[in-house]
Amino acid sequence: MASKKIVLITGANKGIGFEIAKQLAAQHKEYHILMGSRDADRGAKAAEILQKDGLSVEALVLDVADEKSIESAAQTVESKFGSLDVLINNSGVALDSRTGEAPTRATFEQTFAVNVIGAALTTEAFIPLLEKSVGARLVFVSSDLGSLTLRADPHGRHSNVGATAYRCSKAAMNMLALQYANRFRPKGWKVNIHNPGYTATDLNAHSGPGTVEDAAKNAVRLATLGDDGETATYSEKEGSLPW
Ligand SMILES: NC(=O)c1ccc[n+]([C@@H]2O[C@H](COP(=O)([O-])OP(=O)(O)OC[C@H]3O[C@@H](n4cnc5c(N)ncnc54)[C@H](OP(=O)(O)O)[C@@H]3O)[C@@H](O)[C@H]2O)c1
């Protein structure tokens, strides 16, 4: 274990986060995956499924909307591993309707609490541990619904989708990721943004046409970039996305 690279994925008890954990652990035996879950039981059950397949994973309780939980998770990782090599900010909520255009204050606050502030405060808490890694990797699981360029085109991809609070949160997450990309560029960190594509998960009552297998691929690639890999990019498995 001491020689393994340590990866933390937030919201890995199900959906795309779970699949990223599965693919990373299966394809990269040199990695040990901490599967973040805000609920201890859900996290333990998810980790058990992958452990039964012989994969190097374990659950870590982490509610990104709760500072105490973030702090406690960082302390646990520090005392068990002493450093962190890869952080994948995957936790997310989509609370407003895909067709509706009238989000409430509560919808905005709850969406930003997880998708933006949660990702920011989790990243901040783990920076001291990432600084102990040789060339950290950060992946922000965003969405093409956060692309300003696509939204400015009346015929652009998903032009019929409302989801205003969610769209705004993912646009903000993209800026957040770029802030970290520029802050840690001098240290050689690779900080990139991943779009999973519209995927069948609980987030959208399994309405998405895509599979979690496909949705995880580009995140796994970004998490394992070499020293010559890109930073400050916004991409999906088909290639780069317009901002
Ligand atoms: N599915 C899509 O079509 C799609 C498209 C583009 C982007 N994405 C993004 O992909 C990411 C994963 O979504 P998904 O589709 O896999 O959805 P999902 O199946 O609903 O999974 C979301 C994950 O986030 C966790 N989460 C929610 N609030 C949290 C909190 N406060 N603290 C920690 N974890 C929290 C959930 O935990 P619980 O089980 O406890 O709720 C769950 O593990 C999200 O960021 C989403 O915005 C999804």
Helix/strand layout:
Blueprint: E1 5-9, H1 15-27, E2 31-37, H2 40-52, E3 57-61, H3 67-81, E4 86-89, H4 105-130, E5 137-141, H5 148-152, H6 164-183, E6 190-194, H7 212-223, E7 234-236, E8 239-240
Helix pairs in contact: 1-7, 3-4, 4-6
The structure holds NADP nicotinamide-adenine-dinucleotide phosphate.
InterPro entries: CBR1-like (IPR045313), KR_dom (IPR057326), NAD(P)-bd_dom_sf (IPR036291), SDR_fam (IPR002347)
Family: Belongs to the short-chain dehydrogenases/reductases (SDR) family.
GO molecular function: oxidoreductase activity, acting on the CH-OH group of donors, NAD or NADP as acceptor
Please tell me about this protein's structure.
This protein is α/β, with parallel strands linked by helices. Helices cover 43% and strands 15% of the residues. The protein is built from seven helices and eight strands, in the order E-H-E-H-E-H-E-H-E-H-H-E-H-E-E. The protein has helices spanning 15-27, 40-52, 67-81, 105-130, 148-152, 164-183, 212-223, and strands at residues 5-9, 31-37, 57-61, 86-89, 137-141, 190-194, 234-236, 239-240. An eight-stranded mixed sheet has the order 3-2-1-4-5-6-7-8, with helices on both faces. Helix 4 (105-130) runs parallel beside helix 6. The N and C termini lie far apart (39 Å). Residues 10-11, 13-17, 38-39, 42, 62-65, 90-94, 114, 118, 141, 143, 196, 198-199, 201-204, 208 line the site of NADP nicotinamide-adenine-dinucleotide phosphate (NAP).
